[in-house]
Amino acid sequence: MSAPRLEVDLEAIEANTRVLAARLGSRGIGITGVTKAVLGSPAVASAMLRGGAVGLADSRVENLARLAAGDVESVRTLIRSPMLSQVDAVVRVAGVSLHSEPTVLEALSAAAGLAGTTHSVVLMLELGDLREGVLGEAMTGLARTAASLPHLRLVGVGTNLACQSGVAPDQDNMGELSSVVAEVEAATDARLSVISGGNSASLGWALRTTDVGRVNELRLGEALLLGRDPLTRMPLAGLRQDAFILVGELIEVQSKPAQPWGRLAQSAFGAPPARLGTGSVRQGIVALGRQDVESSGLVPPDGVRVLGMSSDHLVLDLGDSGARVGDELRFGVDYGGLLRAATSPFVETVDGSCQDVIRTEPSSARIA
Protein backbone atom coordinates (compact mmCIF):
# COMPACT_ATOMS: atom_id res chain seq x y z
CA MET A 1 0.00 0.00 0.00
CA SER A 2 1.04 3.58 -0.60
CA ALA A 3 1.83 6.03 2.18
CA PRO A 4 0.84 8.22 3.84
CA ARG A 5 -2.36 6.38 4.73
CA LEU A 6 -4.78 6.36 7.61
CA GLU A 7 -5.68 2.83 8.68
CA VAL A 8 -9.10 2.48 10.30
CA ASP A 9 -10.21 -0.37 12.54
CA LEU A 10 -13.95 -0.39 11.90
CA GLU A 11 -14.52 -3.09 14.51
CA ALA A 12 -13.04 -0.78 17.17
CA ILE A 13 -15.46 2.00 16.23
CA GLU A 14 -18.39 -0.41 16.25
CA ALA A 15 -17.31 -1.75 19.65
CA ASN A 16 -16.93 1.74 21.15
CA THR A 17 -20.37 2.69 19.89
CA ARG A 18 -21.92 -0.49 21.29
CA VAL A 19 -20.45 0.10 24.75
CA LEU A 20 -21.63 3.70 24.95
CA ALA A 21 -25.01 2.93 23.38
CA ALA A 22 -25.64 0.42 26.16
CA ARG A 23 -24.46 2.73 28.95
CA LEU A 24 -26.39 5.75 27.71
CA GLY A 25 -29.41 3.70 26.65
CA SER A 26 -29.94 2.61 30.22
CA ARG A 27 -30.38 6.32 31.00
CA GLY A 28 -32.76 6.99 28.14
CA ILE A 29 -30.18 8.68 25.94
CA GLY A 30 -29.54 7.74 22.31
CA ILE A 31 -26.38 8.30 20.26
CA THR A 32 -26.12 10.29 17.06
CA GLY A 33 -22.77 9.41 15.47
CA VAL A 34 -20.79 12.39 14.16
CA THR A 35 -18.71 11.74 11.04
CA LYS A 36 -17.11 15.13 10.42
CA ALA A 37 -13.63 14.01 11.57
CA VAL A 38 -13.61 11.28 8.91
CA LEU A 39 -14.97 13.31 5.99
CA GLY A 40 -18.38 11.67 6.16
CA SER A 41 -17.00 8.18 5.55
CA PRO A 42 -19.87 5.76 4.79
CA ALA A 43 -17.79 2.87 6.15
CA VAL A 44 -17.22 4.58 9.49
CA ALA A 45 -20.85 5.70 9.61
CA SER A 46 -22.03 2.14 9.03
CA ALA A 47 -19.80 0.91 11.88
CA MET A 48 -21.43 3.44 14.19
CA LEU A 49 -24.90 2.31 13.14
CA ARG A 50 -24.00 -1.35 13.64
CA GLY A 51 -22.86 -0.43 17.14
CA GLY A 52 -26.19 1.10 18.01
CA ALA A 53 -26.14 4.75 16.92
CA VAL A 54 -29.70 5.89 16.16
CA GLY A 55 -28.67 8.54 13.63
CA LEU A 56 -25.76 10.26 11.91
CA ALA A 57 -24.62 13.87 11.90
CA ASP A 58 -22.05 16.06 10.23
CA SER A 59 -21.15 19.74 10.11
CA ARG A 60 -20.64 19.85 6.33
CA VAL A 61 -23.30 19.52 3.67
CA GLU A 62 -20.74 17.86 1.40
CA ASN A 63 -20.17 15.09 3.95
CA LEU A 64 -23.89 14.49 4.32
CA ALA A 65 -24.08 14.19 0.54
CA ARG A 66 -21.32 11.60 0.73
CA LEU A 67 -23.31 9.60 3.29
CA ALA A 68 -26.39 9.79 1.08
CA ALA A 69 -24.42 8.70 -1.98
CA GLY A 70 -23.00 5.80 0.03
CA ASP A 71 -26.48 4.42 0.64
CA VAL A 72 -26.13 4.70 4.41
CA GLU A 73 -29.72 4.43 5.61
CA SER A 74 -30.17 6.71 8.63
CA VAL A 75 -31.56 10.02 9.77
CA ARG A 76 -28.95 12.61 8.75
CA THR A 77 -28.51 15.80 10.78
CA LEU A 78 -26.57 18.93 9.83
CA ILE A 79 -24.98 20.09 13.09
CA ARG A 80 -23.67 23.45 11.87
CA SER A 81 -26.33 26.05 11.16
CA PRO A 82 -26.90 26.15 7.39
CA MET A 83 -25.43 28.95 5.33
CA LEU A 84 -28.16 30.86 3.51
CA SER A 85 -26.42 29.94 0.27
CA GLN A 86 -26.84 26.21 1.03
CA VAL A 87 -30.45 25.88 2.20
CA ASP A 88 -31.52 24.19 -1.05
CA ALA A 89 -28.80 21.56 -0.62
CA VAL A 90 -29.61 21.08 3.06
CA VAL A 91 -33.17 19.94 2.42
CA ARG A 92 -31.89 17.42 -0.12
CA VAL A 93 -29.19 15.73 1.98
CA ALA A 94 -30.38 16.20 5.58
CA GLY A 95 -33.62 15.49 7.36
CA VAL A 96 -32.73 17.58 10.42
CA SER A 97 -30.60 20.68 11.03
CA LEU A 98 -29.57 22.82 14.02
CA HIS A 99 -30.51 26.52 14.18
CA SER A 100 -30.18 29.83 15.98
CA GLU A 101 -31.17 32.41 13.33
CA PRO A 102 -34.77 33.31 12.26
CA THR A 103 -33.56 34.42 8.81
CA VAL A 104 -32.07 31.02 8.12
CA LEU A 105 -35.22 29.25 9.33
CA GLU A 106 -37.34 31.32 6.95
CA ALA A 107 -35.05 30.58 4.01
CA LEU A 108 -34.97 26.88 4.89
CA SER A 109 -38.77 26.73 5.03
CA ALA A 110 -38.97 28.27 1.57
CA ALA A 111 -36.40 25.80 0.23
CA ALA A 112 -38.26 22.86 1.77
CA GLY A 113 -41.50 24.10 0.20
CA LEU A 114 -39.91 24.25 -3.24
CA ALA A 115 -38.58 20.74 -2.73
CA GLY A 116 -42.01 19.47 -1.68
CA THR A 117 -40.82 18.32 1.73
CA THR A 118 -40.95 19.17 5.42
CA HIS A 119 -37.65 19.68 7.21
CA SER A 120 -37.10 19.07 10.94
CA VAL A 121 -35.25 21.64 13.05
CA VAL A 122 -33.55 21.65 16.45
CA LEU A 123 -33.01 25.06 18.08
CA MET A 124 -29.68 25.68 19.79
CA LEU A 125 -29.39 27.16 23.28
CA GLU A 126 -26.31 29.15 24.37
CA LEU A 127 -25.15 27.97 27.79
CA GLY A 128 -21.88 29.84 28.17
CA ASP A 129 -19.40 28.31 25.73
CA LEU A 130 -20.01 31.24 23.36
CA ARG A 131 -20.33 29.34 20.14
CA GLU A 132 -23.73 28.84 18.43
CA GLY A 133 -27.09 29.26 20.11
CA VAL A 134 -29.49 31.88 21.47
CA LEU A 135 -29.69 33.01 25.08
CA GLY A 136 -32.43 31.48 27.19
CA GLU A 137 -34.70 34.52 27.11
CA ALA A 138 -34.69 34.52 23.30
CA MET A 139 -35.52 30.84 22.88
CA THR A 140 -39.32 30.98 23.09
CA GLY A 141 -39.46 33.68 20.42
CA LEU A 142 -37.24 31.65 18.11
CA ALA A 143 -39.36 28.57 18.80
CA ARG A 144 -42.56 30.40 17.90
CA THR A 145 -40.96 31.50 14.64
CA ALA A 146 -39.89 27.95 13.79
CA ALA A 147 -43.28 26.50 14.70
CA SER A 148 -45.07 29.03 12.50
CA LEU A 149 -43.16 28.31 9.31
CA PRO A 150 -45.15 26.07 6.96
CA HIS A 151 -42.48 23.65 5.76
CA LEU A 152 -40.57 23.17 9.00
CA ARG A 153 -41.20 20.82 11.92
CA LEU A 154 -39.88 21.94 15.30
CA VAL A 155 -38.63 18.71 16.88
CA GLY A 156 -36.15 19.73 19.53
CA VAL A 157 -33.79 21.94 21.48
CA GLY A 158 -30.07 21.33 21.87
CA THR A 159 -26.86 22.84 23.15
CA ASN A 160 -23.12 22.62 22.65
CA LEU A 161 -20.42 22.98 25.29
CA ALA A 162 -16.64 22.64 25.64
CA CYS A 163 -15.81 23.25 21.96
CA GLN A 164 -15.08 26.98 21.85
CA SER A 165 -14.37 28.09 25.41
CA GLY A 166 -14.01 24.81 27.29
CA VAL A 167 -17.14 25.28 29.44
CA ALA A 168 -17.86 21.86 30.95
CA PRO A 169 -21.35 20.37 31.08
CA ASP A 170 -22.67 20.11 34.64
CA GLN A 171 -25.94 19.81 36.50
CA ASP A 172 -26.55 23.56 36.43
CA ASN A 173 -26.23 24.17 32.70
CA MET A 174 -27.85 20.87 31.76
CA GLY A 175 -30.66 21.66 34.16
CA GLU A 176 -31.13 25.00 32.41
CA LEU A 177 -31.46 23.13 29.12
CA SER A 178 -34.31 21.02 30.50
CA SER A 179 -36.02 24.11 31.92
CA VAL A 180 -35.88 25.90 28.56
CA VAL A 181 -37.34 22.82 26.87
CA ALA A 182 -40.36 23.05 29.16
CA GLU A 183 -40.74 26.75 28.31
CA VAL A 184 -40.58 26.05 24.57
CA GLU A 185 -43.19 23.31 24.83
CA ALA A 186 -45.50 25.61 26.76
CA ALA A 187 -45.03 28.43 24.24
CA THR A 188 -45.61 26.26 21.18
CA ASP A 189 -48.07 23.73 22.60
CA ALA A 190 -45.84 20.93 21.31
CA ARG A 191 -43.98 17.96 22.78
CA LEU A 192 -40.36 17.98 21.63
CA SER A 193 -38.79 14.65 20.72
CA VAL A 194 -35.08 15.60 20.51
CA ILE A 195 -33.30 17.12 23.50
CA SER A 196 -29.67 17.14 22.43
CA GLY A 197 -27.31 17.45 25.38
CA GLY A 198 -24.15 18.19 23.44
CA ASN A 199 -21.11 16.30 22.18
CA SER A 200 -18.63 13.80 23.60
CA ALA A 201 -17.71 16.30 26.31
CA SER A 202 -21.16 15.69 27.85
CA LEU A 203 -20.49 12.00 28.40
CA GLY A 204 -19.01 12.37 31.87
CA TRP A 205 -22.02 14.32 33.09
CA ALA A 206 -24.52 12.00 31.38
CA LEU A 207 -23.00 8.86 32.89
CA ARG A 208 -22.49 10.22 36.40
CA THR A 209 -25.51 12.41 37.07
CA THR A 210 -28.46 11.13 39.05
CA ASP A 211 -30.83 13.18 36.89
CA VAL A 212 -30.44 13.58 33.11
CA GLY A 213 -33.57 15.73 33.01
CA ARG A 214 -35.05 15.91 29.53
CA VAL A 215 -31.81 15.09 27.69
CA ASN A 216 -32.36 12.10 25.39
CA GLU A 217 -29.60 12.44 22.78
CA LEU A 218 -25.86 13.09 22.55
CA ARG A 219 -23.91 13.85 19.37
CA LEU A 220 -20.75 11.74 19.68
CA GLY A 221 -17.67 11.83 17.50
CA GLU A 222 -14.39 11.73 19.43
CA ALA A 223 -15.64 9.24 22.03
CA LEU A 224 -16.69 6.74 19.35
CA LEU A 225 -13.66 7.27 17.12
CA LEU A 226 -10.86 7.53 19.68
CA GLY A 227 -12.38 6.28 22.93
CA ARG A 228 -11.38 9.42 24.84
CA ASP A 229 -13.05 12.08 26.97
CA PRO A 230 -12.57 15.49 25.25
CA LEU A 231 -12.53 17.30 28.61
CA THR A 232 -9.46 15.41 29.83
CA ARG A 233 -8.19 13.50 26.75
CA MET A 234 -8.06 10.49 29.02
CA PRO A 235 -9.21 7.03 27.81
CA LEU A 236 -12.83 6.16 28.56
CA ALA A 237 -13.20 2.93 30.52
CA GLY A 238 -14.00 -0.06 28.35
CA LEU A 239 -13.33 1.76 25.07
CA ARG A 240 -10.58 1.30 22.51
CA GLN A 241 -8.15 4.06 21.57
CA ASP A 242 -6.52 2.29 18.60
CA ALA A 243 -9.13 2.73 15.86
CA PHE A 244 -6.85 4.98 13.76
CA ILE A 245 -3.19 4.63 12.81
CA LEU A 246 -1.40 7.09 10.51
CA VAL A 247 1.30 5.37 8.46
CA GLY A 248 4.18 7.32 6.93
CA GLU A 249 7.27 6.31 4.94
CA LEU A 250 10.85 7.26 5.75
CA ILE A 251 12.53 9.14 2.89
CA GLU A 252 15.80 10.05 4.65
CA VAL A 253 17.83 8.59 7.52
CA GLN A 254 21.04 10.43 8.42
CA SER A 255 23.25 11.05 11.44
CA LYS A 256 23.10 14.82 12.00
CA PRO A 257 24.01 17.32 14.75
CA ALA A 258 21.38 17.64 17.44
CA GLN A 259 21.39 21.45 17.08
CA PRO A 260 21.12 23.68 13.99
CA TRP A 261 24.01 26.01 13.17
CA GLY A 262 24.30 29.39 11.51
CA ARG A 263 22.35 32.60 12.17
CA LEU A 264 18.84 31.66 13.28
CA ALA A 265 15.71 33.45 12.03
CA GLN A 266 12.09 32.40 11.74
CA SER A 267 11.29 29.07 10.11
CA ALA A 268 8.59 28.66 7.47
CA PHE A 269 5.93 28.58 10.19
CA GLY A 270 7.30 31.09 12.69
CA ALA A 271 9.62 30.34 15.56
CA PRO A 272 11.43 27.02 15.02
CA PRO A 273 10.88 24.28 17.60
CA ALA A 274 13.51 23.75 20.27
CA ARG A 275 15.82 20.83 19.54
CA LEU A 276 17.03 19.40 22.80
CA GLY A 277 20.27 17.53 23.34
CA THR A 278 23.88 17.68 22.27
CA GLY A 279 26.09 15.67 19.96
CA SER A 280 24.34 13.94 17.09
CA VAL A 281 21.04 12.21 16.50
CA ARG A 282 19.91 9.54 14.09
CA GLN A 283 17.52 11.81 12.21
CA GLY A 284 14.74 10.48 10.04
CA ILE A 285 12.39 12.29 7.70
CA VAL A 286 8.91 10.94 6.99
CA ALA A 287 6.92 12.06 3.96
CA LEU A 288 4.25 13.79 6.05
CA GLY A 289 3.77 17.52 6.49
CA ARG A 290 1.46 20.18 7.80
CA GLN A 291 -0.67 19.72 4.70
CA ASP A 292 -1.43 16.26 6.08
CA VAL A 293 -1.37 16.52 9.87
CA GLU A 294 -0.09 18.68 12.73
CA SER A 295 2.91 17.23 14.57
CA SER A 296 1.20 18.00 17.89
CA GLY A 297 -1.57 15.59 16.90
CA LEU A 298 0.79 12.63 16.49
CA VAL A 299 1.79 9.94 18.94
CA PRO A 300 5.14 8.60 17.62
CA PRO A 301 6.32 5.00 18.04
CA ASP A 302 8.11 4.14 21.27
CA GLY A 303 11.66 5.46 21.29
CA VAL A 304 11.01 7.96 18.50
CA ARG A 305 10.79 11.73 19.11
CA VAL A 306 9.27 14.42 16.89
CA LEU A 307 11.82 17.18 16.23
CA GLY A 308 9.79 19.36 13.89
CA MET A 309 7.58 19.58 10.84
CA SER A 310 7.40 21.69 7.70
CA SER A 311 4.84 21.65 4.88
CA ASP A 312 5.99 18.28 3.59
CA HIS A 313 8.56 16.83 6.01
CA LEU A 314 8.16 15.29 9.46
CA VAL A 315 11.58 15.32 11.17
CA LEU A 316 12.24 12.69 13.83
CA ASP A 317 14.90 11.55 16.23
CA LEU A 318 14.82 7.82 15.52
CA GLY A 319 16.81 6.96 18.64
CA ASP A 320 17.85 3.31 18.66
CA SER A 321 15.30 2.35 16.01
CA GLY A 322 16.75 0.33 13.17
CA ALA A 323 14.34 1.89 10.67
CA ARG A 324 15.76 2.55 7.21
CA VAL A 325 14.76 4.53 4.13
CA GLY A 326 11.60 2.98 2.68
CA ASP A 327 10.38 1.63 6.01
CA GLU A 328 7.00 2.67 7.34
CA LEU A 329 6.41 4.18 10.78
CA ARG A 330 3.04 3.99 12.52
CA PHE A 331 1.68 6.91 14.54
CA GLY A 332 -1.28 7.23 16.84
CA VAL A 333 -3.41 10.36 16.44
CA ASP A 334 -5.41 12.60 18.71
CA TYR A 335 -8.64 14.28 17.60
CA GLY A 336 -6.87 17.19 15.90
CA GLY A 337 -4.47 14.83 14.17
CA LEU A 338 -7.33 12.61 13.01
CA LEU A 339 -9.33 15.56 11.69
CA ARG A 340 -6.42 16.86 9.63
CA ALA A 341 -5.22 13.50 8.32
CA ALA A 342 -8.67 12.20 7.41
CA THR A 343 -9.45 15.32 5.41
CA SER A 344 -6.09 15.71 3.64
CA PRO A 345 -6.27 14.87 -0.08
CA PHE A 346 -2.77 13.41 0.21
CA VAL A 347 -3.62 10.81 2.87
CA GLU A 348 -5.51 7.71 1.76
CA THR A 349 -7.99 6.27 4.25
CA VAL A 350 -8.13 2.48 4.24
CA ASP A 351 -9.78 -0.34 6.15
CA GLY A 352 -6.93 -1.58 8.32
CA SER A 353 -8.14 -5.19 8.17
CA CYS A 354 -7.96 -5.54 4.39
CA GLN A 355 -6.38 -2.28 3.13
CA ASP A 356 -9.42 -1.49 0.98
CA VAL A 357 -9.77 2.23 0.30
CA ILE A 358 -12.80 3.51 2.20
CA ARG A 359 -12.63 7.25 1.62
CA THR A 360 -14.25 8.93 -1.32
CA GLU A 361 -12.44 12.07 -2.43
CA PRO A 362 -14.30 15.31 -1.60
CA SER A 363 -14.81 16.27 -5.24
CA SER A 364 -16.84 13.12 -5.93
CA ALA A 365 -19.68 14.00 -3.53
CA ARG A 366 -21.92 16.54 -5.25
CA ILE A 367 -24.55 18.56 -3.46
CA ALA A 368 -26.10 20.21 -6.51
TrEMBL record:
UniProt-listed InterPro entries: Ala_racemase (IPR000821), Ala_racemase_N (IPR001608), PLP-binding_barrel (IPR029066)
UniProt entry tagged with the keyword Acetylation: no
Needed co-factor(s): pyridoxal 5'-phosphate
Protein's recorded name: Alanine racemase N-terminal domain-containing protein
Keywords: Isomerase, Pyridoxal phosphate
Keyword Nucleotidyltransferase: no
Domain of life: Bacteria
Residue stretches making up the Alanine racemase N-terminal domain: 8-225
Organism lineage string: Bacteria, Bacillati, Actinomycetota, Actinomycetes, Propionibacteriales
